[in-house]
Design a protein that fits this description.
seven-stranded mixed sheet; two-stranded antiparallel sheet; about 50% helix
Length: about 500
């Protein structure tokens, strides 16, 4: 039980510091004896977040740094998130030095810790933060090198452009993908020819997806994730540089990799990745009817229609139709797996290993979706997510980094009502952010009907992915960002009233 008013000494100390009172020395002693001890004794993540956020208001740098860095090793995602956000607000070079020291010592054996501290380095607009970022490029662990790329782009630090361009050839795809994203954040078209070649010729589906996103951002062209669709753009740029021996676009269109193909579509979200886990809600509400106007649907272009709309009767039927259609579009060398969650969590394949997306595998998946999934119970939302990003070994994101998913497709029609972190959407968001930031996982989120809108939107935005609100009242499902729901809510409510 937490003693009421435990924060009062902090308030008194802050007042004393503001007046440059001799009590500063006493406060430091109080910190060492009381606050550090309380942190060790306090097991509730919610109270640790209060301590972290409260301490940023107290001008005792060594105390604040200690607590921030202590928080970085906490197991709760919301504590870590609060620490990263606050660390990035400390502008003094002493704070950066303390962070850099912890980065090299405290987190020497924790790649996730180093990656998350680099998140803070990226937001600190000081030259002293550039040393750890440059060091991160050379880290043995790919997730740390990827985090260093994103930190360089977040600055944005133009001086790292050449380093990022070299990392486009890194041996690990997650680093190459992060380098594409970072170069897009830096802006300018200097690196565009190199990114374009990655888009056309990289062996990784995920890297080509992120290179495509970078091309869209740098060119402001909304062209599909298909290199051939960009040929006219390439020819135009190459023509502009004709006769220049240093033409960065080259004499001929870049050679396409044998695996290169357009992205698949899931609720109109472009999906292209090496390892995908579909995390699907199988709670009782997924049995609810899903109304479709067949006449209207037939008039749409085939690419815009709901897959197999004539046979879709329920929410679960809708999800199955989109899954089967997406798998048919994905390359056969893509690895896929499934997590089904209600009150409990089940996986497919039951071996816990990814399936190669062959015709035979697609048949097995379709049969399992039709016959092997039982709908019912409440919604253990976080349990499904955790099983998804730790598919090869439940919940162990660290050991699964090299073989786990790089893209997670999440679907729900409700709110967290069971399992771990039930009724705590903010905590779930923080955990998703922590895993996405430390492993560079995209979490595409699809919400059916009246779901936890703000949570799904934030999950997608925090991981650089897309969110869709699919509804059966006349508003078409389109990939959206956090601005979506406030703009659409009124129209949705009006449409729903008309159907009653």
């Amino acid at each position: 039980m937490i003693r009421a008013g435990w924060w009062l000494p902090l308030l008194f100390a802050a007042q004393a510091l503001a007046q440059d009172d001799p009590m500063v020395g006493r406060y430091k002693q109080f910190f060492r004896e009381e606050i550090a001890g309380k942190w060790e004794r306090e097991g509730l993540a919610e109270m640790r977040v209060v301590m972290v956020r409260g301490f940023q208001r107290h001008d005792v740098p060594e105390a604040a740094r200690w607590l921030m860095l202590k928080a970085m090793s906490d197991e709760a995602g919301d504590v870590v998130r609060a620490a990263v956000q606050i660390l990035s607000n400390y502008k003094g070079p002493g704070t950066v030095a303390a962070m850099a020291d912890a980065w090299g010592k405290k987190f020497k054996k924790s790649p996730e810790g180093r990656a998350l501290v680099l998140e803070a380095f990226g937001k600190i607009k000081l030259d002293t933060a550039e040393g750890p970022i440059a060091k991160g490029f050379k880290d043995r662990d790919a997730r740390v090198a990827a985090a260093a790329c994103l930190a360089a782009g977040a600055g944005p630090r133009i001086k790292f452009r050449a380093d990022l361009e070299k990392l486009l050839k890194h041996k690990h795809p997650v680093v190459r993908a992060a380098a594409c994203t970072a170069l897009a954040q830096l802006g300018g078209e200097q690196s565009l020819p190199l990114i374009f070649k990655v888009f056309c010729g990289d062996a990784s589906h995920r890297v080509r997806h992120d290179a495509w996103q970078a091309c869209k951002k740098l060119t402001l062209l909304d062209l599909p994730c298909d290199p051939t669709a960009w040929q006219d753009f390439w020819k135009e740029r190459a023509g502009e540089a004709t006769g220049d021996s240093k033409n960065p676009w080259g004499a001929t269109f870049p050679r396409l990799h044998a695996k290169a193909r357009p992205a698949a579509s899931f609720f109109k979200i472009p999906v292209l990745a090496d390892r995908i886990v579909f995390v699907l809600d199988t709670s009782n509400d997924m049995n609810s009817p899903w109304l479709i106007d067949h006449k209207t649907e037939r008039k749409k272009p085939k690419a815009d229609r709901i897959p197999s709309f004539f046979s879709v009767k329920t929410r679960w039927g809708l999800v199955k139709a989109y899954v089967n259609a997406c798998l048919k579009q994905l390359p056969e060398d893509t690895r896929v797996a499934f997590v089904f969650y209600n009150l409990n969590v089940a996986v497919f394949p039951e071996t816990g290993k990814f399936l190669k997306n062959t015709k035979k595998s697609r048949g097995l998946i379709k049969k399992h979706l039709d016959e092997g999934v039982t709908l019912g119970g409440t919604t253990a939302l976080f349990d499904g997510l955790a099983r998804g990003w730790g598919f090869l070994k439940e919940g162990d994101a660290d050991t699964n980094f090299k073989k786990g998913c790089d893209t997670l497709v999440f679907v729900t029609d409700g709110r967290p009502t069971a399992g771990r972190l039930k009724k705590l959407p903010d905590r779930i968001r923080d955990e998703v952010w922590r895993v996405a930031a430390s492993r560079q996982i995209h979490v595409h989120a699809v919400g059916l009907h009246n779901h936890q809108f703000d949570l799904l939107q934030a999950m997608a935005k925090d991981s650089g992915a897309l969110y869709v609100h699919a509804q059966q009242h006349g508003d078409p499902a389109e990939p959206q960002d956090l601005d979506f729901w406030p703009k659409k809510k009124k129209a949705f409510e009006q449409a729903r009233k008309k159907t009653k």
